[in-house]
Amino acid sequence: MMFQYCLFDLDGTLTDPKEGITRSVQYALKYFGIEEPDLDKLEPFIGPPLKDSFMEFYGLSEEQALKAVEVYRERFAPIGVLENKMIPGTERMLRHARQKGIHLAVASSKPLVFVRQILQHFQIEEYFEVVVGSELDGTRGSKEEVVEEALRQLGILEMKIADRKKRCAMIGDRKFDIHGAKAHGLTGIGVSFGYAGEGELKEAGADGVADTMEQLERMLMADGFLEENEL
Questions:
Q1: CA 20 to 30 Å from 14, out of 45, 193, 201, 231?
Q2: What's the Cα-to-Cα distance from 17 to each of 82, 87, 139, 223, rounded to whole Å?
Q3: CB–CB of 194/212 below 8 Å?
Q4: Rounded to 5 degrees, what angle do the CA atoms 178, 184, 185 make?
């Protein structure tokens, strides 16, 4: 049987947000006197909670990191949020999934207000029964918390773990997405066209990795995926 429920990360999985995120991070770092002209070096900010990234990659204290997030949003909210591109094949994959009767959700660590704005901008919000993100105050910031809330809203939080593995998949481009899947007994599927480092998805325990949107579509909708991967 194919998956009945699919939860998707947003950044690096359905859309490519590199320009908006990295330029807004660059803007925030400049506030602290840090000049970073190479946007490629800021790619690790795509995916995990911003506060954690400012602390990990630039050594900011928690107080400074919270301020950095505030400054980041000064640019991101009016400009950066739509400096974004939909990954080719996304709309087709979502449409086919819904036609197959698969229940779709977005489970993103990005604040919900921005998630909805992006989905509406690309006119793909209609495909999702549930859309979950973090809150602007940092609440529900971890992927594990986001996935749990998505499962609750889908009405399957009480599903047995053994059934979740067979019926539910979490799809994302970073290790955090795979960790979120594993924490709740879901099948974790990675996409290599996002922003994971080399080997990151497999090391995180991904049950499968798609190199293209077309391959992802086949994984999600093929009856034999579970058996072929010995889940």
A1: 231
A2: 8, 10, 22, 32
A3: no
A4: 85
* Partner residues linked to 86 by β-bridges: 15
Q: Which backbone phi and psi does 108 adopt, to 5 degrees?
A: -120, 145
Residue 230 has pLDDT above 70, yes or no: no
Residues marked as catalytic: 9
Q: Are strands 208-210 and 187-191 parallel, antiparallel or unpaired?
A: parallel
3-state class (DSSP) for residue 197:
coil
CA–CA dist 225, 121 (Å, integer) = 32
Per-residue pLDDT band for 162 (boundaries 50, 70, 90) equals confident
pLDDT tens for 113-153 read 999 999 999 999 999 999 999 998 888 989 999 999 999 99
Pairing of strands 15-16, 103-111: unpaired
- Is residue 45 pLDDT above 50, yes or no? yes
Instruction: With H, G, I as helix, E, B as strand and everything else as coil, classify residue 170.
Output: strand
| 3-state class (DSSP) for residue 84 | coil
pLDDT per residue as tens digits for the range 174-188: 999 999 999 999 999
Q: How far apart are CA 169 and CA 164, in angstroms?
A: 8
Question: Has residue 93 got a pLDDT over 90?
Answer: yes
Give residues with Cβ within 8 angstroms of 58, minimum separation 6: 29, 32, 34
Burial group, residue 153, by CB count within 10 angstroms (0-12, 13-18, 19+): middle
